[in-house]
Task: inverse folding
């Protein structure tokens, strides 16, 4: 059972971004299944590190594309990315210090934020980039 089921509703029809979004979903699902299987903090911490690293790289690639093509809402979009990275980094720090476990609340945040971000924000810029010839 996955936390997020990948479907066409997440497609922005830009190959690189769709592949990266799918990978983010896979990492979040791995974190979820590892928690359900009772894997230890070392394994969960490693997956969290992978998520932070991959999300940071994905956001950088996406932001470069938006900046290169002068997307009008670039700064707002970039701020959404900063918020996600800050929240997940704060959680990881608390997790490492033993102050917070991997909770349903954290998993709900990951699921809801990523789903809403792709469906609302990313799908909003997709037509703009399509007009510029980006697929």
Result:
């Amino acid at each position: 059972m996955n936390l997020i089921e990948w479907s066409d509703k997440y497609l922005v029809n830009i190959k690189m971004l769709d592949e990266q979004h799918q990978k983010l979903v896979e990492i979040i699902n791995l974190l979820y299944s590892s928690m359900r299987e009772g894997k230890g903090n070392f394994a969960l911490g490693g997956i969290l590190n992978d998520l932070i690293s991959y999300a940071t790289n994905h956001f950088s690639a996406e932001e470069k594309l938006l900046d290169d093509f002068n997307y009008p809402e670039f700064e707002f979009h970039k701020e959404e990315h900063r918020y996600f990275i800050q929240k997940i980094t704060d959680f990881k720090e608390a997790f490492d210090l033993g102050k917070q476990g991997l909770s349903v609340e954290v998993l709900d945040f990951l699921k809801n934020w990523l789903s809403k971000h792709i469906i609302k924000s990313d799908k909003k810029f997709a037509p703009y980039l399509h007009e510029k010839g980006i697929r």
